[in-house]
Amino acid sequence: MELRQVRYFLALSETLNFTRAAEQCNVAQPTLTLAIRKLEEELGGPLVHRERANTHLTSLGRMILPLLQQVTDSCNAAQQLAGEISRGDRIPLRLGVSCFVNPAHLLEPIRKMASEEMGLELSFCRDREPALLQQLLDGDLELMLGGIDTLDDAKLRIRQMYR
Fold this sequence. Notes:
This protein has 163 residues and is α/β, with parallel strands linked by helices. Helix content is 54%, strand content 14%. It has helices spanning 3-15, 18-25, 29-43, 59-87, 104-116, 129-138; strands at 48-49, 56-57, 91-98, 120-127, 143-145.
């Protein structure tokens, strides 16, 4: 199943007219018709009753319509989220905090940073340092606050914050 087939079907279910659906999708009518036929083959049954003046969805078409709408909505949401992140409108930051670090020292700087950075989406993970370090190395965290002062790993940038 291809996303364009889903989009064509959604346009057809809205217009109930192959020609208007093709126009809405900016494709030739035979292209849309072929894509709908292929989608029907993949799904194992007709989605549309093809009658000149009375085109309408079959029971399968009606049942599958909300699911295919969810697919399109999810794809649109993914594109929007990717755009927001690439433009810097949203900044996800996963922070690992060692159980040896007092969270009271973090609250005020985090509040200040969150108020200055409107799109910051901060999430915390609190654990022991070896587990956090592994998550950091696996790419599950972007930043870790801990007490590891003897660690020498070329993959990491280590900065001392305080003593």
